[in-house]
Amino acid sequence: MTVLRRLALPALALLVAACSEQPEPKNEVVVYTSRNDELIKPVFDAYTEQTGVSIRYITDNAGALAARLKAEGEQSPADLLVTVDAGNLWQATQEDLLQSVESTVLEGNVPEHLRDEQGRWFGLTQRARTIVYSTERVQPSELSSYEALADEQWKGRLCLRTSKKVYNQSLVATMIERLGEEEAERVVRGWVDNLATDVFANDNAVMEAIIAGQCDVGIVNTYYFGRLQRDNPQLPLKLFWANQDSSGTHVNISGGGVTRNAPNREAAVALLEWMSKPEAQKLLADGNLEYPASSGVEAAEQVKAWGDFKADDLNVSVAGSRQVEAVKLMDRAGYR
Amino acid sequence: MPVTADRRPDRYLIIAGALALAVLLPVAVLLSAWRGDESETWRHLVDTVLWRLLGHTAWLVIGVGIGVLLLGASLAWLVATQDFPGRRVLDWALLLPLAMPAYVLAFVVVQGLDYAGPVQTALRQWWPGFSGFSARHPLWVIATLSLVFYPYVYMLARLAFLTQGRAVMEQARLLGRGPWAAFFQVALPMARPAIAAGLALALMETLADFGAVSVFNFDTFTTAIYKSWYGLFNLAAAAQLASLLLLFVLLALWLERRGRGRARYGDRGGRPMVAVRSRWAWLMTCYAGLVVVLAFVLPAGRLLYWTLDEVARGLDARFMSLALRTLTLGISAGVLVVGLASVLAWLQRLRPHRLMRALVRTATMGYALPGSVLAVGIVIGFAAIDRQLGQWFGWRQLLVGSLGALFLAYVIRFMAVAFGPVESALERVRPALLDAARTLGAPPLEAARRVLLPMVAPGLITALLLVGIDIMKEMPATLLLRPFGWDTLAVRIYELTAEGEWQRAALPSLALVAVGLLPVYLLVRRLRHS
Which positions in this protein are listed as binding Fe cation (chain A) (predicted)? Predict the structure, then answer.
């Protein structure tokens, strides 16, 4: 009986081990990513085909992946964290989940304001968030900046997505950096006063509301507009590049960094470097109608047709460092 | 039962204690968050949004509670006791909404009813003065969740009404009660334990829901949890909030048990009802039919409509493997959960004292934990064990990212769903039956196999099907805890909806509904024959 008992624990451990993953061979990179399987898989497949390095990955929300990375600590199998929004990447550095990488390739390909100063994460694609308007009820001359959407003239004509989405949190975070907290709060309160209806759960709903005539302007990420336009080229909507006379249009990134305890550091760096090169940049950006992070790479035809614009060159890590302030500010302003 | 009489530790209690402990592991992780001082986050929440969120949550619990009671109990009564055209079809069709994930129905409702949606667009065309209504009014949230969760009440109440038999109602009528009085004074109180069990499930599901309410952008207590975590980067405050949520649940469960008092399920074994068709029969058909149409036919049709464009793009070999894996997880984890629930229920029967009941209650409270929070609790707990094992044996990560972690999450989350039907099945077995078998010379195992098993099997299978469906629909815990490559349909839906591609998520959603129909079909056959 005692023998049985003594065997019970190791046996249990073996059983669990049998159910869990086998130790990985060297020629492999493990990625935790919040990017959609459909978007990221072609990129990884192309890499595997060219180099023979296989890639294992799981997808989840960035916050959940970071929590898992943190809990796993030194034992984590993850080599690379790839996610959207600079705020999420910044937060990962706050939790000490990413390590510095010195790479002339990455530093050459990724503009300075789209990466971490210490090389802990690098932008892979750019995501512009700007104004979208009804071509039937709005003249582009009426539009100027995000801040101006708080003016009286847009009373009852504005549609917004919920403040719980990180894209809006990042936009407000950069506004706090540029304008100061007081002024940013005045703007957000103005937006809330101008709302035509309750805030929506996603960007598509904002655009559909404008098309249906519930409101006239909104703020969306351009690739959402792109998808809608791809399905319906006769869309009665247009993008307006915000803040061209001042700070430039707000951009955020998707990006990646090598994890603190990456078992396969070199392979992880190699993959990250490859993702900053033109071929992968095209796959990453065009797959979701985003802008490549690498300045030498052109956007897709459809994306280029929206015109050139001046992008905000504030370092995107502001989205992280001021996110908590932004969330609190939006709560105070009654922006749900 | 005097526990203290025997000095040796009671091994039944130990087993139940171990199960409760497994549930408590992630809860303990959550509670440990109270060591930190998160007063700044708390002050912000209290100053700005917390009271509104609590108010919303209260409205939702009250509203959905009333909704599932009205729908579930009335439909169960009609189907069990009345005859009306289409009754045989509606009897099972009313269970179909079980296969519909709440977050999917929520999206279909919002998309359909919003200003830009087909309903209001049509209304504006017919009626130029129409200025519109908000599809995100709290009433719509309540209606949606009621339509998704009423089957829990319906299923359990239906069985209760059927097993009451005709005699009870006849006696009530003979004693001079009108049909309404007989229903409210006799039939309903007798079915109360079953109805309360279904209600408890529906409300815990409501409290834990995040997906559906966020589609409506209707802020509840879970919103505060997620806001603290993802918006304010404060996982500790999120864990504190989540542990408060559990406190509500314990309170609610305690109230439910107190309210139930000594009422028990009973197998009266009476003759089944003979339904008599009344002149209101067609009205009943319309009512039950309308519920099925709103909760299942319309949303499934809408998904199908969106899917038609997507079939070519999304339907490949990988898609089949997603569906297969979803089904595999549902069945295997379902068997595990029901097995453990049976052990618990049996232990409770052997030792029906306070401590045991407290342990059982503990083991079933995980249903109200938001899946994401539960998953993080498990990851943190398991990672700590992994580190320890790593130090002792030099093993690399063993538990985190294993199927074991995923299964534990399912056990914790869905024990309550399995426990109800299993417990009531056991309660219907009179101890005298087993004693008789033993007296007649059957050894314990033989007695269990030949007497007990046939009697509890329907309950076990009901539990298995319910849990299986819930596991297949589960999203947040599956996302965080699944081993590499163990993607399911729910994971696929998440990936698409995270970027707002709801219409494209229609294909995996529809597939999830379709996969869920198999257990519902089996469930229906069970209910037919019971």
Answer: 223-224
